[in-house]
Amino acid sequence: MTNTIKFIIAVAIPVVIGAASGFFTVSGVESWYATINKPSWNPPNWIFGPVWTTLYFMMGIALFLVWKADTSIELKKIAFVLFAVQLALNFFWSFIFFRLHQPGWALAEMLALWIFIILTIFAFAQVNKTAAWLLVPYISWVSFAAILNYTIWKIN
């Protein structure tokens, strides 16, 4: 398989998962989320789409760098499994928060997501340092989102 095909697949995976989770987000933002109390520092709704799109592209590039790296299959397998778990957790957070309207459970799920992103960063670093660094904005945004999620849960 050529690197071009690997790149397209690697970027498509998180982008498609992100688009699917966006379905729950959009429907929730337009209904339930609009009615709940949010802190004064809550970002405007329009910012989330561009931020998440950028983060999903960066995740895909990081995945590509790990995939094409010339290193042991075992290191790659660990990195791929951790990446898949964090991506699944990322998807289900939107479902829990926006579809089920459960900010408390979403926060608990997000803490698991945060741990798996950290584990993914460490696993990626063993294969390709650039891939690991490409996930730093992601963990930063999820850290901010966790604080926001916690605040929304507490004030509602």
Biggest sheet, open or closed, and with what strands and sense?
none
Protein structure class: mainly alpha
Q: How many runs of DSSP E, i.e. beta strands?
A: 0
Number of helices: 7
In CATH terms, the superfamily is TspO/MBR protein
The rough form would be described as elongated
- Give the proportion of residues in helices: over 70%
Can you tell me the number of structural domains? 1
Uncertain segments of ≥5 residues (pLDDT<50)? none
CATH architecture identity: Up-down Bundle
* Helix/strand order, N-terminal first: HHHHHHH
CATH topology tier name = Ferritin
Distance between the termini: 50 Å
In angstroms, what is the radius of gyration? 16 Å
What fraction of residues sit in β-strands?
A: under 5%
CATH class: Mainly Alpha
Mean pLDDT: 95
Characterise the protein shown here.
This protein is an all-alpha fold. The protein has one domain (3-155): TspO/MBR protein (Ferritin, Up-down Bundle), CATH 1.20.1260.100. Helices cover 83% and strands 0% of the residues. The chain contains seven helices and no strands. It has helices at residues 3-29, 32-35, 48-68, 73-99, 103-127, 129-134, 136-155. Helix 1 (3-29) packs parallel to helix 4 and helix 5 (103-127) packs antiparallel against helix 7 (136-155). The radius of gyration is 16 Å and the shape is elongated. The N and C termini lie far apart (50 Å). The mean pLDDT is 95.
